[in-house]
Specification:
It contains seven helices and seven strands. It is of the alpha+beta class.
Amino acid sequence: MKLRVIVVLGILFLVSQVNAQEKLVLKNQKEKISYSIGLNIGRNLESEMKKQSIDIDPNIIARGIQDALSGANPLLSNDEIQETMVALQKEMTEKQKQRGDAFLSENKKKEGVKTLPSGLQYMVIKAGTGKKPKLNDTVTVNYRGTLIDGTEFDSSFRRGQPVAFPVSGVIPGWTEALPLMEEGAKWQLFIPSKLAYGERGAGGLIGPNATLIFEVELLSVQENKQEKKQENKK
């Protein structure tokens, strides 16, 4: 969860403390729009807080917001704040890994799911009949990527445009899985964080230590021309 989420939560709580006892009547379109935006933010925050399992005190958050807005002397030094936020980030990263490990531990028990020695898991949705790519080949695929909670972070299916890239030019989980697939195959990949973006994450929805799920359809394989030429000389 990004720091701005915590800030917004504090602001919302502060506003709620001021107006908690007031019966609000929405008198015009501006107020209706404002309320609708606030309600949506609140609902999203509630979901995010539950997902992240971060233990916070809303009253203290409200105090921090008040001190910042009023220019009061902060209760913590800048160094202490930095240390605290680094510790929070570390805690969130560790919890993310724990959630991913727990998910994979249960997922491998499901029918049809196969686990490779690296920890990569996959399930064949549709078998292929074409050739298998090599590491130096280029593949054209359709794919959909989600987090373990089902949040979609990318999809060529949604864009309506397949993507081409070298087998060796993607995250390790993909590089390991693609040579096992045949043209026309559709697999679901369950990729532990160490075979995805690791402790650094990829920004956006893909945070540190995120376990990723991909639905991958291998449309075609373009063989490496130089490698193929050398094979033909043999």
